[in-house]
Design brief:
Order of helices and strands of chain A: HEHEEHHE
Helix content of chain A: 25-40%
CATH architecture of one domain in chain A: 2-Layer Sandwich
Number of helices of chain A: 4
CATH class of one domain in chain A: Alpha Beta
Strand content of chain A: 25-35%
Strand order of the largest sheet of chain A: 2-3-1-4
Largest sheet of chain A: 4 strands, antiparallel
Distance between the termini of chain A: 59 Å
CATH topology of one domain in chain A: Alpha-Beta Plaits
Oligomer: homodimer
Chain lengths: 145, 145
């Protein structure tokens, strides 16, 4: 009888240890910091280039606005897949942003967010030119390693 | 005595079950398909835009070359972090590639690979103009979700 109780106890411990350590613990090692994900196929992505010329006397101010807007969008909006912004080394006031949205709906949501509107209004008189170019990606769904 | 042997046996089973199921089993759920990774900090990345105009009568042929070259680079070269290529919807023969290499060394290795040289030689007479623009990323290390 004692042996049976003991066996049962050990089996219960084995069960608890295995399941508490394995099944229910998510492995975050390879996770991006961005928690939200969409199940929208990459073929539906809206991919665009924004070519922006900024008043070079206000570049630092502009970059602060843009950085805050990108970080908020990446963290808060599952449908904003990237807003990878670069400036030309030889002309730091010339910016290009590779914008990838999950789909048109995600983009329409994005331009109504408070962080986007804050950026848009805040930088209106710093932007000297803005060209929006709709594009087709050669390999939809390609990532940055 | 029997109870001690039994306890030892159970302890050994617990140990084996826990370690065979948890510690040694890698979780590939969130892995990108790209197996190689570098430990080079994002601040060292070489980030560039290639602006390419292609002979529009040979666009399909060019795209086949470019796609093969990008896929080979992403799979085989840990230091090629992305080669995200887009074409303008209104001018499909105008391409822009956002190129991110782990560092200058990774780029120098890249341009010596057989797949890059195959692309370069194969498309030489299809490329009407090529502008290479060195850039600084606003947020080094930003990804595509």
């Amino acid at each position: 009888m004692l042996k049976k109780v003991f066996s049962f106890f050990i089996a219960a411990v084995v069960f608890m240890v295995v399941f508490s350590n394995c099944s229910s613990k998510p492995d975050n090692k390879n996770k991006e910091p961005y928690m939200n994900e969409t199940s929208i196929p990459a073929e539906n992505n809206k991919v665009r280039l924004s070519m922006i010329t900024v008043d070079s006397t206000r570049l630092d101010e502009y970059n602060t606005f843009l950085k805050e807007e990108i970080e908020a969008s990446m963290w808060l909006e599952p449908g904003v897949l990237t807003l990878y912004a670069v400036s030309e080394k030889d002309n730091p006031n010339k910016m290009v942003i590779l914008e990838i949205y999950a789909d048109e709906e995600a983009y329409q949501k994005h331009i109504k967010t408070s962080h986007f509107l804050k950026y848009k209004k805040g930088t209106l008189d710093m932007v000297q030119s803005l060209e929006l170019i709709d594009t087709t990606p050669l390999i939809p769904g390609l990532k940055i390693k």
